[in-house]
Amino acid sequence: MDTRYNYKIVQYFMVASVIWALIGMLIGVILAAQLYWPALNLDSEYFQFGRLRPLHTNGVIFGFVVNLLMGTSFYIIQRTCKQRLYNMSIAWLVFWLWQFILILAVITLPMGFTTSKEYAELEWPIDILIAITWVMYAIVFFMTIAKRSVHHIFVANWFYGAFIIVIAMIFIANNLELPVTMWKSYSIYSGAEDAIVQWWWGHNAVGFLLTAGIIGMNYYFIPKVAERPIYSYRLSVIHFWGLVGFYTWAGTHHLIYSSVPDWLQNLGIVMSLILWLPSWGGAFNSMMTLLNNKQKLKHDYIMWFFFSAIVYYALATFEGPLLAIRWFNMIAHNTDWVIGHVHSGALGWVGMSAIATFYYFIPRLYGHEQLWSNRLVKWHFWLAHIGIVLYAVALWIAGIGQGYMWLKEEPNGSLSYSFVEAMNFSAPWMLVRFIGGALFVLGVVLMIYNLYRTVKQPKPKNNNNADTVTEKVDAHD
């Protein structure tokens, strides 16, 4: 066993990520069902849509994704820096405090303790705990880099570092609030100022946590799975600076046609359109890395998951700038089209990337080179794909239909359609959305069963740990 590195904490983070993925996505399926069958709110203040929705988003973002990024970053930073984690006591404290934070969210959100700010619903005592834990995470990460045994800093760590710094900065700024009781506070911002700061946070939580962090993870694991080096290391660096330079300014495209000053709206529009270039450049880089091993790509479903993730990344980063164009924003914003856009990225890009990483990484983390069942991986791939397509297409259709119905006027200026008529139009698509989400979660259940059976099977002889496999392909570690 290679004692240079500590993988135990990585195992804990990965298991936690899988558990929170299932919990968060199951709540999402319940919410989709409630939108079609409102009676499933059960006349309960704790089980109705408004209470469960922030539990779903926080469970997926902070439970599933953050555990995944913390775990993979602690692994990758050790491998690429040839250095054990800086301080294992602090690292373990980060793990347990983060799980405690998530449990507090599960308790407080259904009880109605919320700031009501998108992706920032948790109240001030939990916010303080998040900030403290995040600083400790940053200390472990950056001090490990500082003590590295190699001169070069691998590009994945650039993305992880950016995600850690930017999330800390915008989380603290957006959550500056005045407590009035133990579980109630009010933001120090108001009106348009509050909206600007909120979408500086909201859009960049997606941009740096769900995008930059996942990109960093993929820049390490895609070459591993493909058994090829990154297609263009230089392009990966351009990808990094393009995202860092432009993404932080794009959030105000959510505030078009609002009381926010026009110059700030236009800044968000321009920056959003510019983002097409680095985003698609990064997608091309990852796709070419996979295509450099076409023979393996023909039969390896883990590579297919990664390939699909890149396609969905290109799609989602096309939709975002599209939403920044005024005429399209007028039709699509505040409709279900935006939910379809978010989930084409969340399920297609983040979900498929995470699934591929789980399938490749977790077996090796526990000393196995092969999954228990490749057939289940194949089934999972098609369930996930069908689920995403049904989900996204249903909401795109529902959203564009809603937008046109809400905007259409009669010659006398009255609305052509009532709110109820628009909801009746959307109803069948809400059913399709539920079916798509249920299929995706069914695939996750198959994955968990497959991984459980993989980890529990006897270890192959002469395979002491993950290093025996990963060393074969590490051109950069």
UniProtKB/TrEMBL annotation:
It is found in: Cell membrane. It holds the Pfam family COX1. It is a multi-pass membrane protein. InterPro entries: Cyt_c_oxase-like_su1_dom, Cyt_c_oxase-like_su1_sf, Cyt_C_Oxase_1, Cyt_c_Oxase_su1_BS, Cyt_c_oxidase_cbb3_su1. The keyword Cell cycle does not apply. Residues 1-477 form the Cytochrome oxidase subunit I profile domain. SUPFAM superfamilies: Cytochrome c oxidase subunit I-like. It is an enzyme of class 7 (translocase). Belongs to the heme-copper respiratory oxidase family. This is cytochrome-c oxidase.
